[in-house]
């Protein structure tokens, strides 16, 4: 194939192929693409309408600000539950009807299994006003009621959207009306279309003309009423941002609407004749995972109606930075539906205040979301400052839908969450009506996979709780506690735990107790237990003061009569509490030990796992005898469960073994006899090595067992596994070995086992195909632990090392070099200098290594060898080695740089005399480049090396190099040079450096002078009290610097004064210090933050050097100055001084004459 | 870290300590604090207490008790009649020479 063919092929693939498209859902930046099905359930929740704020000033509990009241919400929740039950029931019946021979399977909540109570009330009377046709006139409460209503079952639904019929009617489609035709927005759940996106876009397939094709016309002809198929909360509340606030509601609404209709319903709806039921296409496979559905339809809100005909249509706008957005950041395609409004060219003067506000908020949000950091910062500050002017409604109505957007990315979410956080502070109790909305959006963060997202979520919710107050939080979240959806209950429980940590457990306790004992629904009890569990996880030992109450709340739940789930959750909560309380608080658990114990005997499967976990967590809290008793009892069950195939159970069992074995009560002998064999038979199997989450607890438990039963017996069982076929398994064994040996050494191991151990380790080490740091660590640890005992095997190890160092694979060479670095000390203690020299020679020859990673390791190994055998005995000699290192200094790789500079520094420190001064000067020049390395460790090592070299060959030449380096442009380089100068001054005594340095100050160049000052500052910091010999020498220089025009100059001079003053405190240099203070003092009114900081520091330091008595004479001059700005500065200095030396100030306060009301004289001071 | 947060942080830190002041601190507050500090110093340093006990011819415990009680209202007029103001005018009351 020629290149042209390839090109043609590429072209054929179409222009719509986006090269930047992210295909892999795992690496996609969009959150929606990555999240699991469970996490994606957050989209099922609707942003409920505002709630009434009963605490609002003057507000009655009924309807102060148009929000829903608690009673209404509770009623709706009740209806929701009922509806869920009915729908499940319907689904069940339908399935029974369809195929009688299949037994009814009821998925999801077991609530259905209980015999459903029918309540007639709901169908007879609707608790809310009946819906009307006029969308605009619908009240807030009503519209949302509709949003949560099950669409298809209710006849009133059809009254509400009367346009559906006529529009499809006048289309007079030749095709028969089939049931999927009536909801062409069937993006998420339509039954048969596999490419829902096509359907969603207007003007898609010509075959399916739906009413959506005609809606724009409709819009133009109609003014406001009747346009919207779904009167949403936001639309009705008068805020005209339909597509935005509309969106999440629409999502739910869509899903409800597009629920599969049962055959019975369809029969009722459609005339009997003229219709026939089509078979689904053969190739049709329904999409079952919600996550996939979302990725399939990025423009998931589907179609929305533009405000008016002239406005640009969001869906067909390209990603542009349009002319209208002069000062706004780029808009992405997905942003259009939120920010499309900003593109409309409207006359600002003609807009109403609300519209203006909305545009302003949108603008700011866009800047925060897509802008560059400085733009974002300004916008964030603006939105925070104006939060109260904007009001909570407009703000949250914009922010929250944006957060629910499926196109959201991590960074954007972080920023928006930050906005909420800032705004919350400002709004304070104004947020109350919006608490639920915010929670709906923020709660999913609590179960996010990303740790930082979880922390952020907690932060927001705790701030929310502090702003809204406990009562509001409980009233808002109470309806969700027994929500039908497990997802909602889960997130609510976590949110409650956060509230408890924010407002204190005691405040929440009565509520928790009530919830845990709820008679009405088991879901409430379950959630109650879960809240307590989450509190324990979140707050740790802070639960201790309330432990008794929390446990008491769980007592009933542990013995719950009719729900296994509640018992399990209660046991898990107790386990979490016990772990949080460890090692205190066993007396609080007294009341539950009995039920837990019975539970362990009674239950099987998941329930047993939970109860075992609880008992296992309680045992470490008990005293020795009780622990021994319970351990022995529980161990029989645990050992029985060793063979359980259930993963969850195995994890729990591992944990229980670990906890039980760690207690004092259990005898080592018991472990050896009863536990070890079974444990190894069932847990040390290859399957466990496959998953890191299994392997880690297994290794930890094994280490714990070794601690109790002894290293010998455990190693005896582990060592044979070192020769297992599976590499992952060998690695796990090595990991366990390493941890055991690191913790307990190898004194317990006899010669025979020792031989087997080394043999196995050599096998495992040589057979590894992927070089892992675990192997390396284990080998190094074991060899070091053996010490001289390893001598007989050294020949073997050495030949392995040699062979591997000559290996073709770079990874192998690198790992081997690392290993040598670790075991060099042992080689020396075994008296194998020959081997060391041999290795040194090999490394020396390998210095031409091309892979930087390997070269770095080789240098590291060389350093270890040099350290161990010493400079004088080094083979090859240092004078040969160092010239080979000089060119390597130029290597840009960080690992190489770090190791080589360490090695060179070490040689300069210990064996500088082996190398000619000229070579050292050459190295000095190379080192200058290292001063601008990115890693601090490298810069530090370079600076230290300067010191060593200067010591070796005298400071003059080195200093000359460094001083000329002060003239370079790069700041980083100059800073490091100043540090190096200071170090040279420190190592070679200041008097060798100071004259040249002070002479350099005369160069009329700002950078150089600043560099000199900075060097002085570092120097005085390093030399400390030695500075007293140089005070009078540098004072004129500092004097000059402190009266310089340049701000930075004075700042650096102040820093120098600080270090100088701290160094000479109490060394009789007060005269010079007062002189310097007189020069520092006029700078106290500087405003630049760095300068004022430096000045304050200098004054503090002078206070230390001179004592507060001198300083207070300066300070009292301004404490009561008529000008506030003067007073502020003086009080700041006074406060610093007062905090630093309060006691010492006592005799120095000014004497004040008494007046007729007060005695100001401090008589006690005048006793004689 | 801009200049506002920097300063406000420092001020916040300082304000946690009793005895620190700010631009609106009154003369009275400042002076009362000085008195309390003085009394506290006398109670806190055993040598000073011992010295005072000697001077007042009281036991050390009594002296300590007196000092502590005085801390409640250190500057209120009590006991002996006030010493007349040295120069009689307000401007001289801030005598910084010790």
From TrEMBL, chain A:
Q: What residue spans carry the Basic and acidic residues bias annotation? A: 18-38, 91-102, 150-162
> Domain Phosphatase PP2A regulatory subunit A/Splicing factor 3B subunit 1-like HEAT repeat: where?
951-1023
The answer to keyword Repeat applying to this record is yes
One Gene Ontology molecular-function label: mRNA binding
Q: What is the top-level taxon of the source organism?
A: Eukaryota
| Per-repeat ranges for HEAT | 550-589
Biological process terms in GO annotation: spliceosomal complex assembly
Major localization listed first in the record, in broad terms: nucleus
What family classification does the UniProt entry report for this protein?
Belongs to the SF3B1 family.
Q: Kindly provide the name given to this protein in its UniProt entry.
A: Uncharacterized protein
Automatic annotation (TrEMBL), chain B:
Task: Return the Acidic residues bias intervals.
Answer: 87-98
- Among the record's GO biological process terms, what is one? mRNA splicing, via spliceosome
The protein's superkingdom reads: Eukaryota
InterPro entries tied to this protein: SF3b5/RDS3-10
Q: Name one Pfam family in it.
A: SF3b10
Q: Which GO terms describe its cellular component?
A: precatalytic spliceosome; U2 snRNP
- Sequence segments annotated as region (Disordered): 75-98
Question: Could you identify this protein by its name?
Answer: Splicing factor subunit
């Amino acid at each position: 194939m020629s290149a042209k063919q390839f090109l043609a092929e590429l072209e054929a693939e179409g222009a719509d192929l986006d090269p930047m498209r992210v295909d892999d859902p795992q690496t996609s930046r969009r959150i929606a693409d990555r999240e699991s099905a469970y996490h994606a359930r957050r989209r099922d929740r609707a942003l409920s309408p505002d709630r009434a704020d009963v605490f609002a000033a003057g507000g009655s509990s009924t309807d102060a600000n148009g929000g829903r009241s608690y009673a209404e919400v509770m009623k709706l929740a009740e209806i929701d539950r009922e509806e869920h039950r009915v729908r499940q029931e319907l689904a069940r019946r339908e399935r029974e009807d369809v195929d009688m021979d299949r037994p009814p399977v009821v998925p999801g909540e077991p609530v259905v299994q209980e015999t459903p109570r029918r309540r007639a009330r709901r169908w007879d009377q609707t608790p809310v006003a009946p819906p009307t046709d006029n969308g605009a006139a619908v009240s807030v409460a009503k519209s949302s009621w509709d949003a949560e209503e099950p669409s298809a079952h209710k006849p009133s639904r059809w009254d509400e959207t009367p346009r559906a019929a006529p529009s499809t009617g006048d289309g007079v489609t030749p095709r028969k009306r089939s049931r999927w035709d009536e909801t062409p927005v069937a993006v998420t759940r339509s039954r048969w279309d596999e490419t829902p996106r096509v359907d969603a876009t207007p003007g898609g397939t010509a075959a399916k003309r739906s009413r959506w094709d005609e809606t724009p016309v409709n819009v133009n002809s109609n003014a406001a009423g009747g346009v919207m198929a779904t009167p949403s909360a936001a639309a009705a509340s008068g805020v005209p941002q339909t597509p935005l606030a509309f969106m999440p509601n629409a999502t739910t609404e869509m899903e409800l609407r597009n629920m599969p209709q049962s055959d019975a319903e369809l029969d009722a709806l459609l005339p009997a004749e003229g219709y026939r039921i089509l078979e689904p296409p053969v190739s049709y496979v329904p999409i079952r995972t919600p996550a996939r559905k979302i990725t399939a339809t990025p423009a998931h809100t589907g179609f929305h109606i533009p405000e008016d005909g002239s406005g640009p249509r969001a869906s067909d706008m390209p990603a542009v930075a349009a002319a209208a957005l002069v000062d706004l950041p780029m808009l992405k395609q997905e942003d259009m539906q939120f920010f499309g409004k900003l593109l409309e060219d409207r006359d600002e003067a003609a807009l109403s205040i609300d519209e203006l506000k909305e545009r302003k908020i949108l603008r700011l949000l866009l800047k925060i979301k897509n802008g560059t950091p400085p733009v974002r910062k300004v916008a964030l500050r603006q939105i925070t400052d104006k939060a109260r002017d904007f009001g909570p409604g407009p703000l949250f109505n914009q922010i929250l839908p944006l957060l629910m957007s499926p196109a959201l990315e991590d960074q954007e979410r972080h920023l928006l969450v930050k906005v909420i956080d800032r705004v919350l502070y400002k709004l304070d109790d104004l947020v109350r009506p919006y608490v639920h909305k915010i929670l709906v959006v923020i709660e999913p963060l609590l179960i996010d996979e990303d740790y930082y997202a979880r922390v952020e979520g907690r932060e927001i919710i705790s701030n929310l709780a502090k702003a809204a107050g406990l009562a509001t939080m409980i009233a808002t979240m109470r309806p969700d506690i027994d929500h039908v959806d497990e997802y909602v209950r889960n997130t609510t429980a976590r949110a409650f735990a956060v509230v408890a940590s924010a407002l204190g457990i005691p405040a929440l306790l009565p509520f928790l107790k009530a919830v845990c004992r709820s008679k009405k629904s088991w879901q409430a009890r379950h959630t109650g237990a879960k809240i307590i569990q989450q509190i324990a996880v979140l707050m740790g030992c802070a639960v201790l003061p309330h432990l008794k109450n929390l446990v008491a709340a769980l007592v009933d739940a542990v013995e719950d009569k009719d729900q296994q789930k509640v018992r399990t959750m209660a046991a898990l909560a107790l386990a979490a509490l016990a772990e949080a309380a460890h090692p205190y608080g066993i007396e609080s658990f007294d009341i539950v030990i009995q039920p837990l114990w019975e539970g362990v005997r009674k239950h099987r499967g998941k329930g047993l796992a939970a109860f075992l976990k609880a008992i296992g967590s309680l045992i470490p809290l008990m005293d020795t005898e009780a622990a021994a008793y319970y351990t022995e009892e529980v161990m029989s069950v645990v050992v029985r469960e060793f063979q359980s195939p259930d993963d969850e159970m195995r994890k729990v069992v591992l944990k229980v073994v670990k906890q039980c074995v760690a207690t004092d009560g259990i005898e080592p002998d018991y472990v050896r006899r009863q536990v070890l064999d079974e444990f190894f038979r069932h847990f040390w199997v290859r399957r466990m090595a496959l998953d890191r989450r299994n392997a880690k607890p297994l290794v930890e438990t094994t280490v714990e067992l070794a601690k109790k039963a002894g290293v010998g017996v455990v190693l005896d069982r582990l060592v044979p596994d070192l020769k297992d076929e599976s590499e992952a398994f060998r690695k796990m064994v090595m990991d366990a070995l390493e941890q055991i040996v690191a913790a307990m050494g190898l004194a317990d191991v006899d010669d025979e086992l020792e031989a087997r151990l080394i043999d196995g380790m050599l096998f495992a080490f040589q057979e590894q195909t992927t070089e892992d740091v675990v192997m390396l660590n284990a080998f190094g640890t074991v060899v070091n632990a053996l010490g001289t005992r390893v001598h007989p095997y050294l020949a073997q190890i050495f030949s392995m090392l040699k062979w591997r160092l000559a290996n073709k694979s770079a990874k192998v060479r690198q790992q081997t070099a690392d290993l040598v670095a670790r075991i060099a000390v042992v080689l020396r203690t075994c008296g194998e200098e020959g081997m060391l020299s041999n290795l040194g020679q090999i490394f020396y020859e390998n210095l031409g290594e091309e892979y930087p990673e390997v070269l770095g390791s080789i240098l590291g190994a060389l350093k270890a060898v040099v350290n161990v055998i010493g400079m004088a005995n080094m083979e090859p000699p240092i004078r040969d080695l160092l010239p080979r290192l000089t060119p390597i200094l130029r290597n840009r790789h960080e690992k190489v740089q770090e190791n080589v500079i360490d090695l060179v520094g070490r040689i300069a420190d210990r064996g500088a005399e082996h190398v000619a001064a000229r070579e050292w000067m050459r190295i000095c020049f190379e080192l200058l480049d290292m001063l601008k390395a990115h890693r601090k460790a490298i810069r530090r090592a370079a600076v230290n090396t300067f010191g060593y070299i200067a010591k070796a060959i005298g400071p003059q030449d080195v200093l000359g190099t460094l001083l000329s380096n002060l003239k370079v442009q790069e700041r980083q380089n100059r800073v490091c040079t100043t540090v190096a100068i200071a170090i040279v001054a420190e190592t070679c005594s200041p008097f060798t450096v100071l004259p040249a340095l002070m002479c350099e100050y005369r160069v009329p160049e700002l950078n150089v002078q600043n560099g000199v000052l900075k060097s002085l500052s570092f120097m005085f910091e390093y030399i400390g009290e030695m500075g007293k010999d140089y005070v009078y020498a540098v004072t004129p220089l500092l004097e000059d610097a402190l009266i310089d025009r340049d701000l930075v100059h004075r700042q650096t001079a102040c820093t120098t004064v600080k270090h100088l003053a701290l160094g000479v405190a109490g060394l009789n240099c007060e005269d010079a210090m007062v002189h310097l203070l007189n020069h520092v003092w006029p700078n106290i009114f500087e405003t630049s933050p760095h300068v004022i900081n430096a000045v304050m520091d200098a004054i503090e330091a002078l206070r230390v050097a001179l004592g507060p008595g001198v300083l207070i004479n300066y300070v009292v001059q301004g404490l009561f100055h008529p000008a506030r700005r003067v007073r502020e500065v003086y009080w700041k200095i006074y406060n610093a001084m007062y905090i630093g030396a309060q006691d010492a100030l006592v005799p120095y306060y000014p004497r004040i004459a008494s007046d007729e009301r007060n005695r100001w004289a401090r008589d006690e001071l005048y006793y004689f | 870290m801009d200049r506002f947060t920097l300063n406000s942080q420092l001020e916040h830190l300082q304000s946690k300590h009793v005895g620190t002041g700010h631009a609106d601190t009154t003369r009275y507050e400042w002076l009362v604090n000085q008195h309390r500090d003085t009394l506290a110093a006398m109670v806190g340093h055993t040598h000073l207490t011992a010295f005072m006990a000697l001077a007042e011819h009281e036991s050390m415990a009594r002296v300590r008790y007196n000092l502590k009680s005085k801390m409640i209202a250190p500057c209120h007029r009590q006991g002996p009649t006030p010493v007349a103001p040295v120069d009689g005018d307000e401007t001289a009351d801030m005598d910084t020479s010790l």
